[in-house]
Each structure stands twice: as C-alpha cells, then as structure tokens.
Amino acid sequence: MLTFYNHLHTLHQGKLEMFRGELVPCFEVPDRADHVLAELHRRPLGPVLPPQAFDDSALTGIHSARYLSFLKTAWDEWVALDPANAARDALPSVWPVRTLRSDVLPANFAARMGLFSMDAGTPLTSGTWAAARAGADCALSAANAVAGGERAAFALTRPPGHHAGADFFGGYCFLNNAALAAQQLRTQGIARVAVLDIDYHHGNGTQAIFYDRADVYFTSIHGDPHTEYPFYLGYADELGCGAGLGFNRNLPLPRGTGFAAWRTALVQALQGIAGFGAQALVVSLGLDTFDGDPVAGFHLHSADYLAVGADLAAVGLPTVFVFEGGYAVAEVGVSAVNVLQGFEQAQ
Ligand code: 6XA
Ligand code: ZN
User: Fold this and answer.
1) Are 105 and 115 in contact, with CB atoms under 8 Å apart?
2) H/E element holding 74?
3) Could you list which residues have their CB under 5 Å from ion ligand 2?
4) Ligand lying closest to the C-alpha of residue 91
5) Which string of DSSP letters, residue by residue, matches 12-70?
6) How far is the CA of 286 from the centre of ligand 2 (A)?
7) Strand, coil or helix: what is 223?
8) pLDDT, tens digit, 9 for 90 and up, residues 294-323
9) 206 Cβ partners below 8 Å, 6+ apart?
C-alpha cells in the first residue's frame, strides 16, 4: 500500500476551540498524524511518499470558487484587521441561519467567517490553507495511484475533511479530502465510486456534496445525530435526492455501541456498496470509534481494527483510505495501522 503523507500538516495547529461552553485546547493536534506515521515506520506497509502537486482546478469540482478564495486569504485578512490577531486564531461567532441571507458576500470578515463555517470548534490558523491544500494533494495522489492500478493507497493528512461542505468548514475540516478523492476516481474514468465513512461522526460534508448524484454512493456508520455531532445531518431517512435518490445510506448507532453491533452495521454498509456495483472505494478512516476517545462514544478496541481492515479487503475493490478523526492520540497510530494491516493481510 502506498501512503501519501502531508509533510505540511504541522502548519495547521489550532490553539483553542469552543467546547462545552469554554475555550479549550484543540483536540485535533499534529501529534495525531505523527503517531500514525511513527506506527507506519514500525510496521511498514509500503513506501511513504510526498504527494504530487495538483492545480486548483482539481478542487473546484468539489468546493465553490468563493469559498476557496476566502480560505486562501482568510488568515491575511484576519491579521490585517489587527496585527495582534497574529497571536490568536480566527473563530467564527455569527452564522446566517434560517431567514438570513447566504447569497450576499459581506465585506465584514467575521460575517464571512460565519457564512463559510458551521461551528466555533474549528480555528482557522496561519498555516491552515497550506496544510489543507497539501492534504488535498495527498487525497488526489492516492486516488490517482488507485485509478492507475494500485490496490490501495492511504492519504495520511490532517486537518481532516469529511465535515467540510462545498462552501463551508467545520468539525476541524476545511477541504473535503474524501470527496476530492472520490471525484478524482470519477475523473480518471471509474464510473461508480463508493465512499464509506467509518469515523464516529457523520460525514455531513461528503454526503451533501454527492447527495444528488448517482455515480458516487455514500454510506456512513456513526453516532446517532440526535445526540452526536454534527447533529443536523446523518439520519437514516436521508436517502439522496433527484438522480441521487437511493445512493445515500446512513447507519446511525447509539452512543455506547460496541464492536459486535458496529460490525453488523459494517456488513450492511458493505452490502449496500456491493449492491451499488462500486468499482472503487474511498474510506473516510476516522479512528474516534476507539474506546476512550475524548470526543466520541463507541467502544472499539485496538484488535477490532484488524478485523475492520479484513472486512474492507473482502469487498475486493481498489481502495483509497483517507485519515479523518481520532483523538486518543497515543493510540490513534496503532488503530489506523491496524486497519491498514488487516486490509493488507486479508488480500
Ligand atoms: C465538536 C466535535 C467535532 C468532531 C470532529 C470529528 N467540536 N469529526 O472528529 O469526525
Ligand atoms: Zn470524528
């Protein structure tokens, strides 16, 4: 398996996020990816490569032009407002909810932060754009490798991506790496692509991006949004719309779910992918399903991830893995590489 490693990920290093009524140190830290890389060095599964550089046209199939232009210059605008802002990250605090307009692009920076975001838990930092942009290159490189005949490739990058929509950031995500990979597989001529999201949190961004499409099937196993982030999407009755009706499948599970019930849902998701006739698979690989994750509530254990990898390999599809959540930092490397090793050993 090839790994495309985002060598610029440390440039995104948020300071504080809003959590349970106070600003707390960010959970989404550079150490997460470092632990995965260290574990990949202990248990090598193949070469670790830098990504190819793609131009921005690879992003515009997924993200809106006005969102991309905002992200590119947001940090400079933030510091231009007040030089002292260089020492603090930008967080949104006002949003265009129902009855307010989101078609107008306000001049005010705070107003645009709210227009292009969904929560106050996702700080925008000096290096956010550089890190996210290189992460997109990793996802696109992994997709190209798989389209070119590799059985599997892993995009080892942060910040994660699956909450990012066509024109908003949130849930620690800025560019939707899984969606970019899926679209790249399509662009490279693979007619039917499935995205399987196994992060604890529903991949609202990925779902929304492909919701009206019949060529990309999205399925997700996640904490029930009645109680779990992102709350406003991820319910079982969301089946797709228009041409995409029947090409979206959510499998929400209650907080507290253990591996046996989770694996039953995995079997259902994989049956859906087989029924769709997928020719390639993108896995949003979140490891926050781990027992003891500080922002999640499932109870998977390290050894379970070997079985998950084996189950994924049994589908027999060329597969792109994209690193998403997982905040039990000391354990996230073992969990991630267990999935990948379980996949490799099952082939
Ligand atoms: C609320 C929790 C964000 C969850 C981010 C995540 N600040 N998504 O792990 O997969
Ligand atoms: Zn998550």
Assistant:
1) yes
2) helix 65-81
3) 199-201, 286, 288, 325
4) 1
5) ----EEEETTEEEE-SS-THHHHHHHHHHHHS--S-EEPPPP--GGGTTTTS-HHHHHH
6) 6
7) strand
8) 999 999 999 999 999 999 999 999 999 999
9) 161, 162, 176, 178, 179, 182, 195, 197, 218, 220, 284
How is the beta sheet containing 216-223 ordered, strand by strand?
A: 48-49, 2-5, 152-156, 319-323, 280-285, 193-197, 216-223, 248-253
How far is residue 26's CA from residue 171's CA, in Å, rounded to a whole number? 11
If you measure from the C-alpha of residue 82 to the centroid of ligand 1, how many angstroms do you get, rounded to a whole number? 29
To test ligand 1's pocket by mutation, which of 202, 288, 293, 335 has the most ligand atoms within 8 angstroms of CB? Answer: 288
- Tell me the per-residue pLDDT of 134-174, one tens digit each, with 9 for 90 and over: 999 999 999 999 999 999 999 999 999 999 999 999 999 99
The residues annotated with a catalytic role in the active site are 163
Nearest CA to ligand 1 atom 5: 171
Residue 347 has pLDDT above 90, yes or no: no
Residue with tokens 């692009």, as numbered in its chain = 105
Atom of ligand 1 nearest to the CA of 326: 9
13 CB neighbour count, 10 Å cutoff: 19
Looking at residue 178, what is its pLDDT?
99
CA geometry: angle 105, 107, 111, nearest 5 deg: 70
Q: Give me 125's structure tokens.
A: 């930092």
- Enumerate residues lining ligand 1, CB below 6 A: 121, 163, 171-172, 199, 201, 229, 286, 288, 295, 324-325
Please identify, by atom number, the ligand 1 atom nearest to the C-alpha of residue 19.
7
